[in-house]
Request: fold
Amino acid sequence: MLTILAYVALALIAACAIILLLALRQPDHFQFARSTRIAASREKVHGLIDDLRAMNSWNPFDLRATKPGRYSEKTKGPGASYAFDCPKAGSGSIEIVSSTADQIALALHMTKPFKADNRVTFDLAEVDGKTEVTWGIAGPSPLIGKIISMFMSCEKMMSRDFEEGLANLKAMAERQ
Reply:
């Protein structure tokens, strides 16, 4: 009996060691983006992103929130921020750190389900009379993130939300 338990314990230790070694070989940073073309001016699209209240009217992460977040006094442009606590998206805050005609950059600070500091960008370009919007996210991959990415694709999970958000943004910008 003791021998079987010893083998099981050794197998578990070996499995954990293999998972840890494989996780350490994963990239130290992640980055992905999704794009769409919108039949609206870059200025109109920019206004729906650079204003956090407007953004949250199409942002799927906020649309699923079960309780309202908290906006800072400033809700538009650099320095505007929004704190959230959502069972699906987690808890944290987002702040606009820069805003130009071509790009809006935000700092995403997550506190739950685990701590993370990521950069979110919206790149805007005029292409064939439309506005191409590219929604991207990038940040460091901590060890827990590397382990999780071995079993599930965070990009695949989040890309659904990005695509839904871009479709919502497109519908809103083209409707107005």
